[in-house]
Amino acid sequence: MTEWTIAVSGLSKRYGGTVAVDALSFTVRPGSVTGFVGPNGAGKSTTLRMLLGLDAPDSGSALIGGRPYRALHDPLRAVGALLDAEAVHPGRRARAHLLWQARYNGLPARRVDEVLELVGLEPAARKRAGGFSLGMRQRLGIAGALLGDPRVLILDEPVNGLDPEGIRWIRGLLRSLAAEGRTVLVSSHLMSELQDTADHVIVIGRGRLLADRAVAELLAAASGDRVVLHTSHRAEAMTVLAAAGGTVSVLGADALTVSGLPVERVAAELSGGAVPFSALAPHRASLEEAYLDLTRDAAEFRAHGRDTEEPRV
Ligand SMILES: Nc1ncnc2c1ncn2[C@@H]1O[C@H](COP(=O)(O)OP(=O)(O)OP(=O)(O)O)[C@@H](O)[C@H]1O
């Protein structure tokens, strides 16, 4: 049986003087959602295009189930991909577009109706794609990716253009596809989009690997041993906690961050000093904070030319 792992190894691609992907290596395993994150221009789409055989690497390899995409026996059943939701002809009706794709790949018309239902596009099945919102085009692209009931899904910025309801929907869809044992790789330039979706993230910048870690690990590292304290007696709290050996910084008008003291000790010190407080809890970092921590270290990320753009929040 094929192990449907995505394996990128020493992958590099240059366009003229631009190094788009630079000796990139990572593995994406079945059964979880893996986020592929980096700011605009980091090299995500180029990597995905090489994985799908749409661009040739200068060196290295990009394999799916141990083979290059072009060598897969039944590619649509093996891999479903969404690269560009705009790629549908505007005059084509949604169902007709999918039927054409299905026939071309030897799939039954029944499957077209199944995927239309899965992505919630049944009511628009007979409408022309030209009249679709970006969110509807994303859904149509996802329907196309799911047609062959593939083991591996590769989606480039699938959340782009979706409204909050659509974002919730795609999170659920990705999680259920992964729970069925599929390999799910989803790119985004916004780490926050992957919160509550990805189990694992691969972060790249300027074509290079910055992190390849479980989300839980990344969040634990970014959360550190900090405690967040809410009190209207900020000055007194700072004095008491500093005297106890804590490092205290101001978070907001009524909020402080304390590190170097466990939460129980902070509570005991405040009570001992008769300093009132309204809330006290270990700090839980967001995925966006973890991302900013990571990219802060990668100074070259923002220091030069095209990557001067801050990751958008
Ligand atoms: N066909 C091409 N010809 C020339 N340069 C290219 C080509 N494709 C990508 N590049 C360049 O390679 C770099 C990486 O681009 P890529 O589209 O892979 O990044 P990305 O991470 O997908 O960004 P985005 O989030 O904006 O889609 C960029 O500097 C881009 O301008």
Quantity of strands, as a count = 13
Radius of gyration: 24 Å
Report the top-level CATH class of the largest domain.
Alpha Beta
Number of domains: 2
Q: Major beta sheet, specifics?
A: 6 strands, mixed
- The largest sheet has its strands arranged as 5-6-7-3-8-9
Pfam family, one: ABC_tran
Family: Belongs to the ABC transporter superfamily.
GO molecular function: ATP binding
Protein name: ABC transporter ATP-binding protein
Describe what you observe in this structure.
This protein is of the alpha/beta class and 313 residues long. The protein has two domains: 6-220, 3-Layer(aba) Sandwich (Rossmann fold), CATH 3.40.50.300; 225-282, 2-Layer Sandwich (Alpha-Beta Plaits). The protein has eleven helices and 13 strands. The chain has helices spanning 44-51, 75-78, 94-104, 109-118, 134-146, 164-179, 215-223, 234-243, 263-272, 287-297, 300-303, and strands at residues 6-15, 18-28, 33-37, 59-64, 79-82, 152-156, 183-188, 200-205, 208-214, 227-230, 247-252, 255-259, 279-282. The strands form three sheets. It has a six-stranded mixed sheet with strand order 5-6-7-3-8-9, sandwiched between helices. A four-stranded antiparallel sheet has the order 11-12-10-13, covered by helices on one side. The site of adenosine-5'-triphosphate has 13 residues, from strand 2 and helix 1. This is ABC transporter ATP-binding protein. One of its GO terms (molecular function) is ATP binding. Residues 6-231 form the ABC transporter domain. It comes from Actinacidiphila acidipaludis. InterPro entries: AAA+_ATPase, ABC_transporter-like_ATP-bd, ABC_transporter-like_CS, P-loop_NTPase.
